Amino acid sequence: MNASDVVETLTIAHWDGPVPAESQRRAEVGLEAGRVLLFPALAFHPAPDEHALLSPDALDNTRKNISLDPSTGRLGGTALSGAERDRLAAMMSRFAAAATGFLRALLPGYARHLEPARTSFRPTGIDDRPTSPRHDDRRLHVDAFPTRPLHGQRILRLFSNIAPDGAARHWRVGEPFADFAGAFIPRLRPALPGSAPLLAALGLTKGRRSAYDEVMLQLHDAAKRDENYQRRAPQVALELPAGTSWLVFTDLVLHAAVRGHTALEQTFHLPLAAMAEPERAPLRVLERLSGRAPV
Ligand code: SIN
Ligand code: FE
């Protein structure tokens, strides 16, 4: 594997479109095939009075990210208060709006179906996070949300590296999803009977986990816990410079964030039916591998 297998570079420099049809086509094909779309000229610029906020001091240290919930407007995970808190929320909302407008211009086939989810601000150095293997995003994994069952919907994420000192963010990207899932599926365990309705009733998940959600969570955990896989699996290093943005289906693409600091990220959910080739979705791949429907 080398970087050209896993990255598609698009030279778009504006958040608000329009995007040429040829770039739209490359974007959709590349994403669905499991490539990272890199936009080397798409920079998100914090305003001058926001620069002081770009520091790990903005965190309340209960978690590694500050998040903005678009449905409630609530900011979580920050130690800031008063005017500084409002300023951070404003910067994150501006990023969310720019990211949403950009995706609608870039991916007209998805536009009406994209559901903007959380916006996150990641001010710390990736290296400075002491974590358990399961929470360690420096290990290759596919994303799955423990509290937010998706029932097969896709996770699409846009990242912008806004490091004020110009530090690149370093990722590693792994093998195709089908190869990974094919190797790990035989090791997975069925969920405990009755656990999905119980987790939902206790409010630990937002709605019931489906079999798909259970499998994706187990794949996430199993990959991160497997030291041998982490060392030996095919993977390529990607350098994502400050001032760039990138977009990727993180439920499909094995990824690890190994070094860097100060990034913004916007998550979107997308129904399978909006894809040009839904058979490339993790749900459909898992169905083919297991010979039956996991949802
Ligand atoms: C992740 O989704 O694993 C983290 C990516 C990042 O923070 O760069
Ligand atoms: Fe991840």
Spell the H/E element sequence.
HEHEEEHEEEHHHHEEEEH
Taking strands numbered 1, 2, ... along the chain, how are they ordered across the largest sheet? 1-2-9-6-11-5-3-4
* Mean residue pLDDT: 95
In this entry the ligands are: succinic acid, fe (iii) ion
Strand content: 15-25%
Per the CATH scheme, the topology name is Jelly Rolls
Rg, rounded, reads: 19 Å
Binned, the helix content reads: 25-40%
Number of domains: 1
Count of helical regions = 8
Write down how many β-strands occur, each being a DSSP E stretch of 2 or more residues.
Answer: 11
| Overall form | globular
CATH class: Mainly Beta
Main beta sheet: 8 strands, mixed
Question: Could you name the ranges where pLDDT drops below 50 across 5 or more consecutive residues?
Answer: none
Global structural class? alpha+beta
Amino- and carboxy-terminal Cα gap: 32 Å
Q: Which architecture name does CATH use?
A: Sandwich
